[in-house]
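Handout, section 3.2

Students often ask what a structure token actually looks like in practice. Rather than define it abstractly, here is a full record for 33_t:CDS:1. The first block is the sequence as you would receive it.
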Amino acid sequence: MPVISGFNEDTKKYKTEYDKAIKSQSKVVTFLPHMFFLFGCAFISLWGIVSLVKTIPNLSLPTSIEAVKKQAIILENYSNRTWEGYIHIFTVFSLIYVWKQAFSIPGAIFLNILAGALYGPFTATLLSSILTSIGASCAYLLSKFIGQPMIDQYLSDKLSFLRKQVDENRDGLFFYLLFIRMFPLSPWW
């Protein structure tokens, strides 16, 4: 008995549509755990930071430079009273700074001013640099383990183009990266 050719074409068409639907569902299924993990990390760490901040007496959220100066005086008095107070302020300040850097939250100016008021300019600069490096490393790790699978899955064609551009400019990579950093408009996006 002869096979009707339309049947094979319809089967291929439905199979292709089915495969596309399965791939689309698969993307959502792999996307959700990563997002839940990221938001879980953010909210759990935020809860921990807020809990730590509440342990410092007479502290409020600064909204201006003057408020930061007032808070710095309060924190300096608290940290100068006892060694435990100093360690407490140092620990909370360090964790807030790293958390802020890890989740790319703006407000470094307030923390830098506060660090300068609490620890002096030299120590504050050194401390801010170290904490910024640690926070940036945490941000890198978050993006590597959570963001990279999503980027590879959803933006693979654009990512392969960018990788090709980096490979082509391997000899002058410093200047290439400097250029795309100074001019953030990316024509290939």
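Discussion prompt for tutorial groups: The chain has a mean pLDDT of 81. How would you have guessed this from the sequence alone?
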